[in-house]
Amino acid sequence: MLIDLNTKEIWFITGSQHLYGPETLAQVAENSGKIVEALNASSCIPVTIILKPTVKTTEEIFEALAAANHTENCIGIIVWMHTFSPAKMWIRGLTALQKPMLHFHTQFNKDIPWSTMDMDFMNLNQAAHGDREFGFMVSRLRKNRKVVVGHWADEKVQKQIGNWSRVAAGWDDWQGAKFVRFGDNMRFVAVTDGDKVEAETQLGFSVNTWGVGDLVNIINDIGDGEVKTLLEEYETSYKMAESLLSGGSHRKSLEVAARIELGLEKFLKEGNFKGFSDTFEDLHGLEQLPGIAVQRLMEKGYGFAGEGDWKTAALVRAMKTMGHGLEGGNAFMEDYTYHLNSSNPLVLGSHMLEVDPVLAAHKPSCEIHPLGIGGKADPVRLVFNSRGNIDSLNAALMDFGNHFRLLINKTKAIEITEELPRLPVARVLWKPLPDLYTAAEAWILAGGAHHTCYSENITAEQLEDFADIAGIESLVIDEDTRIREFKNILRWNEMYYR
């Protein structure tokens, strides 16, 4: 279940035509190779860029793009027109293409060689208009793509390509992914439900329900030796409450929590699931609501959301894939309560038990406390505060009946300096942009969910790119948001998706 971007490939496909002759085409191939070498040497790009032969005919283009479709490790393509490549040649290939595409508008030379430039140079370096010809055809075919403009050796450009490659990896991870729902949706809740058939059709992942009893059977079969080993891991990884230590009054509860974690992970591995959801309204056979189990499985890379919210579970997994290897984390989140101080309004986020310790500023504390909901034994959980002074965001995925909407709010993580002795859960504090009042109003106008994925390392632009690949709506609430304009965007989008 560990996410490994090193095995993923993006194919670099250069367009040209036979008109220019073998000498020019040989130079095109050589220059393309140097660009790919530079991209692979860049620390900004986590995947491998694979140079493919220059395509010069309709047939070569179709074969290259069809091969990309059917190559498992290929998660997308980068296309560049070194010379002019008549775009009608691309129609069949682009129509068949199913992988994400980045159109790289660059040229081999960075500067104009004023004193040596001749017509041979001009014929070789035609990206300025060759890419425009290609761009017309992609737009004419109404295909979504990412456009990156700039010189291939510039770090800013390489970072854009690297960011997009992470988006492509997140999309690839969804294709054929399976998510399990233990029980159904939380009763009478609207936004966490949705059309699972349409999601599989458009987004590529499936969601199916298993009875909690199926999970309980596996949990009950976990051996005492496995539990003992996991307890030792808990004791070395966390600050342990005294009652949970060997001989403590709640040691048995910790053993139950460990057995739940081991059973859950075994169930997910055997079913090849990438994420899951549960609900405290369906815990039949479980002694306690999974707390530390869910937290640690998310930290390992599984997507999760509570109350049957399969859309957020899938989004958490996608964003974990995109951010893999970067500093910071991505975690299931919920806006819980506000600090409505007019000079510094803030949001405190949490979710009962299930916030990923990947966000923890310091070593988490392993504790047990009553929950007051669900009617089960007191659950074990990890308690911590999140990091502050980080650019962050919250994202939510909603089903609006005729389309999916990805809503993004840029935020600023705030360090928690107050003591919270009576709130034994994970705590995350942030300032929404442009401010709490505007952000909350826009979020509500857009029908934003109360469950989100909170990210410390994914950008709003990346999530917009992800929505473009998926063919779904995206909306961003940021420092430039104004309610009057935001309402108009909602109206225009409603007409577009109608």
Question: Which consecutive residue ranges, at least 5 long each, have pLDDT under 50?
Answer: none
How many distinct beta strands?
A: 19
Discrete helix count: 15
Strand content: 15-25%
Mean pLDDT: 96
- Structural shape: elongated
Give the assembly state of these chains.
Answer: single chain
Helical content (DSSP H or I, runs of 4+): 25-40%
Largest sheet at a glance?
6 strands, antiparallel, barrel
Strand and helix map with partners:
Layout: E1 9-15, H1 21-41, E2 48-51, H2 58-70, E3 74-81, H3 91-96, E4 101-105, H4 119-124, H5 127-140, E5 146-149, H6 155-174, E6 178-182, H7 196-203, E7 206-210, H8 212-220, H9 224-237, E8 239-240, H10 251-270, E9 275-278, H11 292-299, E10 303-306, H12 310-322, E11 330-339, E12 346-349, E13 365-368, E14 380-383, E15 390-399, E16 404-413, E17 428-432, H13 436-445, E18 451-455, H14 460-470, E19 473-477, H15 483-497
Parallel strand pairs: 1-2, 1-3, 3-4, 4-5, 6-7, 6-9, 8-13, 9-10, 16-19
Antiparallel strand pairs: 11-12, 11-18, 12-17, 13-14, 15-16, 15-18, 16-17
Report on this model:
- This protein has 498 residues and is α/β, with parallel strands linked by helices.
- Helix content is 38%, strand content 21%.
- It is built from 15 helices and 19 strands.
- A six-stranded antiparallel barrel has the order 11-12-17-16-15-18.
- Helix 1 links the parallel strand 1 and strand 2.
- Helix 6 packs across helix 14 and helix 10 crosses helix 11.
- The model has no long low-confidence stretch (mean pLDDT 96).
